[in-house]
Amino acid sequence: MTDVTAEKSNEVKATAAASGASATERFQAKERSEAASGKERVSTLASEVLAAVHDVIRRHKVTYAEYDALKAWLIQVGLDGEWPLFLDVWVEHVVEEVNNEARPGSKGTIEGPYYVPGAPALSADAALPMREGESGTPLVFQGQVRSADGTLLPGALVDIWQADADGLYAQFAPNLPEWNLRGSVTVDEKGTFRIRTVEPAPYQIPTDGSCGKLIAAAGWHAWRPAHLHLKVSAPGHQTLTTQLYFRGGEHVTDDIASAVKPELVLDPAPAADGNGHEVHYDLELAPEQ
Ligand code: MBD
Ligand code: FE
Fold first, then answer.
1. Owning domain of residue 276
2. Where is the signal peptide, in residue numbers (predicted)?
3. DSSP codes of every residue in 81-137
4. Atom of ligand 1 nearest to the CA of 243
5. What would the mean pLDDT of 63-81 be, rounded to a whole number?
6. Is residue 85 included in any domain, yes or no?
7. CB count, 10 Å around CB of 112?
């Protein structure tokens, strides 16, 4: 006879395989530019990545046992669907850094694997979609969207997505409403927005997949600090992809994804109505080049 209890608890658990499969599917559905680089550049980049690997092997005299462990692990990353997670946690921050270091306006940071386009459209003063009695400290997040020169941007969209108070993302963990804590906010005529949500919990990388195995084998920790993800767009401006963190929160100073910048740490204050916290954060977009 099957153990119904075990099956059930397995079904409701957020597994690496389930979130990995969703993240891989999501990335494959993303519109992206094809063949961004010519032969010469591909050759340069590929040669230098390989040379860096060869250098590590020589310096550390990597054994055949270690080489086979690496092969097995790389194969398993793909089978677990964890390439999006692996790349966004350990590589994306440097891509973001080199691409946006000279951009005026608000600081960006990594997108990560859990953005989903097409979230419910919300007005400038709205609550994110959430369950009745959604747990977590209520948070009012308000601000104004401007161009880097200070001009108001009334046509802006603030796309927001976050984990819930258990650290889980809708569409990447089971049993959450499809668009829980995800919304696409149109700012008002002054460029302002006022979003009611709950504070997210820190996020733990799934421990039962390949990324989790690497973390355990290396003796690292698996945590990202609590964060709100934002994508802010407006006509004639470069889209800002960023995240906001909470001052004093766990892992703000040791994010596994290296995606915290001092400018991105919020200082929430007690809400005027005594219910949770509120915080003001303005967002400045760089004009299109
Ligand atoms: C996340 O929530 C996230 O934002 C990143 C970058 C990686 C893994 C999970
Ligand atoms: Fe995240």
1. 98-285
2. none
3. T-HHHHHHHHTHHHHHHHHHTT--SSPP----S---S-PPEE-SEEEPP--TT--S-
4. 4
5. 97
6. no
7. 22
Find the 113 Cα to ligand 1 centroid distance in Å.
6
218 confidence band (pLDDT: 50, 70, 90): very high
Which H or E run contains 74? helix 64-79
| Measured torsion, CA atoms of residues 251, 256, 261, 267, in degrees rounded to the nearest 10 | -20
Render pLDDT for 226-262 as a digit per residue (tens, 0 to 9).
999 999 999 999 999 999 999 999 999 999 999 999 9
State the pTM of this model.
Answer: 0.94
CATH of the domain at 278: 2.60.130.10
- Give the torsion sign (CA, 174, 178, 181, 182): positive
Is 138:276 a contact under the CB 8 Å cutoff? yes
Domain count, the chain: 1
Question: Does residue 48 form part of some domain?
Answer: no
Residue 33 lies in a domain: no
Is there a domain that residue 136 lies in?
A: yes
Which atom of ligand 1 is least distant from the CA of 203? 2
Residue with the larger pLDDT of the pair 30 and 256: 256
**Ligand 1 environment, Cβ below 6 A:** 85, 88-89, 110, 112-114, 203, 224, 257, 259
- Residue 69 alpha carbon to ligand 2 centre in Å: 29
